[in-house]
Amino acid sequence: MHLKKILFVTLILAGFLLMVPPIMAQSGERTVVYQTSFDSDPKWTTNSPSNYYWDPSLAVYHFSVEKSSGAYSYKVVDFESGPFMLEYDLLFTKFDKEAYFGLGFSNSEMDIGKGPNVVTQYTNAKYGQIMWLHLITNGNKAMDINSVHLPSELGPDAYAGPTVRFEVNKTYHVVMNYDDGSKTLEMRVIEKMSGKVIWNYYMNTWENLHSLNRIYMGAVGVYGRMNIYSQGYIDNLRLSTPSASPSVTTTVPVSTAPTYPINTSKTTRKVAVTVPTSYPPVSQNSPVSVIHVIGALGIVGVTYLHKRNGK
């Protein structure tokens, strides 16, 4: 009788322990919606092929942004609403005074003055080379935050940390993260060589964002003096969402090429180095786990022994 009780307890613990790992494995997993390392032609659509194009010799995507030009480049993605993370590598080779650069997530309008639109922006004006997080909600509420210490001018909701400026000829990894549950939008800028976060801030969106399906660069809705440019490259771009169910994981391959100076020969492959830590694993839907089956069989066995013991 004592042996049966020990077996009974052991089977209960085994059944539950076998079920725990798949639940724990869900933490931090993400599903990739769109991803490109620009090793092959990403086939983005542009109305200005001389300013926005894939560079096969460097395996990056080149941009040259000019205000008031109305030029753009974009990729339609299979997304509509919900939480997301948009990340990319960025290297400026030129950034004129009063120039502008923006990479964002929007709809077919891709206009920084029309919603919905979330944009990581960079400018070089009164406060120097600073970073911005720009939002236009679906209800056309506009919100901006930048990396300048201006609480006295912009009020208590303004960024209160030290002023942070970006540099030309330095590679950054930029992350824009939207959480649908808390209605928050965050921007994080990381130096790729050191892995140091140089600027990180968030804003409340106050409403859920939806109807987002284009990742884009451009100057639609951006006005100012012409013949002033921001130029450089983007690389390792990815749009992902939190995984919704247990999954089998595979590792996303990421290039490990070094950073090269701006005047690299055309035979050089990569401009940007990889992120110091690799991307989180990509999740793919999978059938019912074998572990779950074993766990279920364990519980069935427990039930059988219990009934038999009670007779």
Descriptive report:
It is built from three helices and 17 strands. The strands form three sheets. Strands 1, 3, 4, 6, 11, 12, 13 and 15 form an eight-stranded antiparallel sheet that branches. The N terminus is likely disordered. The longest helix has 23 residues. By secondary structure, it is α+β, with helices and mostly antiparallel strands. The protein is globular. The chain has two domains: 56 residues; 244 residues, Jelly Rolls.
List the helices and strands and how they pair.
Blueprint: H1 2-24, E1 30-36, E2 45-46, E3 52-55, E4 60-66, E5 72-76, E6 84-95, E7 100-106, E8 117-125, E9 128-136, E10 142-146, H2 151-154, E11 171-179, E12 184-191, E13 197-204, E14 214-218, E15 229-242, E16 248-250, E17 282-284, H3 290-310
Antiparallel strand pairs: 1-15, 2-5, 3-4, 4-15, 5-14, 6-11, 6-15, 7-8, 7-14, 8-9, 9-10, 11-12, 12-13, 16-17
Keywords:
globular; alpha+beta; disordered N terminus; 3 helices; 311 residues; 7-stranded antiparallel β-sheet; Jelly Rolls
Runs with pLDDT <50, length 5+? 3-27, 247-305
Overall tally of domains? 2
Strand content: 35-45%
Overall 3D shape: globular
How confident is the prediction overall: mean pLDDT? 78
**Largest sheet descriptor:** 8 strands, antiparallel
Count the DSSP helices: 3
Q: Give the CATH class of the largest domain.
A: Mainly Beta
How many strands in all?
A: 17
Q: Helicity range of the residues?
A: 10-25%
Distance between the termini: 13 Å
Looking at the overall shape, the CATH architecture of the largest domain is: Sandwich
